[in-house]
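Task card 7
Instruction: Convert sequence to structure tokens.
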Amino acid sequence: MRQPKIIVIIPAYNEADSIELVIKEIPSIVSQTIVVNNASTDATQKAAENAGATVLTESKMGYGHACLKGLDYLAKQETLPDIIVFLDGDYSDYPEQLTQIVAPIIDQDYDMVIGARVKEQREKGSMTPQQVFGNALACWLMKLLFKANYTDLGPFRAIKYKSLLSLNMQDTTYGWTVEMQLKALRKGLKYKEVSVKYKKRIGVSKVSGTLKGAIFAGVKILSWIFKYSFK
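Output:
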């Protein structure tokens, strides 16, 4: 069985202090690391290039915009990937755990694997109270409404490229992760969670670090859930 082609996509906004650390700890099984520089005003692009990543530029602000930019780039390549891994650029995740996240896809034919930031493996203070509450509420609603088995909306995740394309992802901001998980349920994709470690990020979060960001993200996530509950 051939080694699957694994591509990492890292949306990055002002992550110059952390992006090189993230890239350098990505396992060698990855064929290519793509950093999408999402309108950064610091040296994120230069730092990512110095670390050996392919750097794309997306001027439209938004996590989803950055992810879609990476997918648009891949769709134009001669050889398409087998697995896409999404990873944050703030060094809160442990990139070396990528092998654990892709293993169920490679060995057990899962379509999607979510890195679940379980309490026992989270550094104290790595997630804000609003993040913990928001994740719990969203996952509880998905269990109630769709009989899902999610415990987290963790951004560190892997998915088969063909499965991802079938989801027709559209969200351009903070609803990207929950959109993927909801559409995976609707499509009947085979999914599971893998427990991952989580530490305090480098720098200030653009979402949970501000009241506006936290509220906007919460509204986005809940709107996706209720939108799908009436379909």
